[in-house]
Design a protein that fits this description.
Length: about 325
C-alpha cells in the first residue's frame, strides 16, 4: 500500500532565491541590502561576504550580521556558510558574491585545472584527453551546493558579477579590434560569472546596469512576480516586502503607499503570457540568426508585442528557426 498522501495545494512558506547580476557600479550590493531588509521586515539578516569585507560599507545603513568567507572558494565552503546562517535562524541570507565559487581563488574553474594537473601533469596531449573528466568532481560539488541552498528555510539573495561580451570587428583602418558586443537580448551584452544554469535555479534573476543602478532587467521573472518589481525604477525595500508577503501565502500583496493592489505589468514593461519563453541561450541563438540572415529584428519584436528576444515564446522560436 502506498504511503503517499495528497492535499489541496496552498502556497505557504515558499523559499525565495533571488539573483542580482551586474558589472561594477551596477548597484548589486546596495540593492541586495535593500531587498534583504524588505524581505526580513526589519529583522537582522545574514551577509556572507567574499569581497574582502566590502559589505561592511553598508553597516550604518542596514541591520545585518556579517561573516567573511575567504579562499579557497570551494562549493562546500559556500554551502557550509549558508547552512550555518540558516541554522542560526536568519530570515534572509545574502551572499556577496556568488561568482567566487565559480571563478574565484580555489573555485570550480581552479578546481578543474587542479584535477587536470593531477590526472595529466604537463603532458598536453593527455590533458586534452582528460579535460572532460576533470570537470566531474568540481561540477558535482557545485551541483550539491545548489541543492543544499534550495533546501534552506531562509530566503536567499545571491549577488553575481557579470562581464561584458566582446567581439572582434574591423576598425576604420582595416585592422581587427576588440570591442564590447552590441546588445542583442535582455542580457544587454553581459555574461554572468557563474554556472550557466544558476540564473534559472532562482525564483527570480535580474541584470543590473551601471547607467541605471538597481533598476532590474529581468532574466527570469514569473508572471506573478512582475507587478512586484517595476522595471522603470530601482529595486527597493518595498519589492522585498511584497514578495515576502507573496512567499508567506498572501494572495494580494498591497503597497501601503498606494493603498491599492499592485497593478499588473503593463505592455510597456514585459508581456504577461502563460506560454513558456526561451532560455537565454536560445535568445542569443535567435539574435545571432537574425543578424546572420539580415532579418529585421524590430519588425519581428513589434509583430509579437515584445521588447526583446528573451520574451519570445518557444513556439515563436521554433517558427523562426524553421523559417
Amino acid at each position: 500500500m502506498s504511503n503517499f498522501q495528497f492535499r489541496p495545494a496552498v502556497r505557504e512558506n515558499v523559499g525565495l532565491w533571488i539573483n542580482l547580476i551586474g558589472g561594477t557600479g551596477s548597484g548589486k550590493s546596495f540593492t541586495g541590502m535593500r531587498l534583504a531588509s524588505g524581505i526580513s521586515g526589519g529583522k537582522p539578516f545574514a551577509v556572507i561576504d567574499t569581497e574582502n569585507r566590502r559589505a561592511l560599507h553598508y553597516a550604518d545603513q542596514f541591520k545585518f550580521d556579517h561573516a567573511e568567507l575567504r579562499p579557497p572558494f570551494r562549493p562546500e565552503a559556500y554551502s557550509d556558510a549558508v547552512l550555518a546562517a540558516d541554522k542560526a535562524g536568519y530570515p534572509v541570507i545574502m551572499i556577496d558574491s556568488g561568482s567566487h565559487v565559480w571563478a574565484g581563488d580555489g573555485g570550480v574553474l581552479d578546481w578543474q585545472d587542479e584535477e587536470l594537473d593531477r590526472m595529466a601533469g604537463t603532458d598536453w596531449k593527455k590533458r586534452e584527453a582528460c579535460k572532460m573528466a576533470a570537470w566531474i568532481k568540481p561540477k558535482m560539488a557545485h551541483k550539491q551546493m545548489v541543492q543544499k541552498l534550495l533546501q534552506v528555510k531562509a530566503h536567499i539573495i545571491l549577488c553575481l558579477r557579470a562581464e561584458a561580451k566582446v567581439e572582434m570587428v574591423k576598425g576604420s583602418d582595416g585592422k581587427m579590434v576588440i570591442q564590447a558586443k552590441q546588445s542583442l537580448v535582455g542580457l544587454d551584452g553581459w555574461i554572468p560569472i557563474c554556472d550557466k544554469n544558476l540564473p534559472f535555479e532562482a525564483t527570480a534573476s535580474f541584470l543590473l546596469m551601471a547607467d541605471k543602478p538597481g533598476a532590474p532587467l529581468p532574466i527570469k521573472l514569473q508572471d506573478q512576480h512582475r507587478p512586484l518589481f517595476p522595471l522603470d525604477k530601482p529595486i527597493t525595500e518595498e519589492s522585498g516586502r511584497l514578495i515576502a508577503v507573496w512567499a508567506a501565502g498572501g494572495k494580494n500583496a498591497e503597497s501601503p503607499a498606494a493603498g491599492q493592489p499592485v497593478a499588473p505589468a503593463s505592455a510597456t514593461t514585459a508581456p504577461v503570457d502563460s506560454a513558456p519563453t526561451v532560455s537565454v541561450d536560445q535568445a542569443i541563438e535567435l539574435a545571432d540568426l537574425f543578424r546572420e540572415k539580415g532579418w529585421n529584428k524590430q519588425k519581428f519584436l513589434d509583430k509579437h508585442g515584445i521588447k526583446s528576444f528573451e520574451q519570445v515564446t518557444l513556439e515563436q522560436y521554433e517558427q523562426a528557426k524553421a523559417a
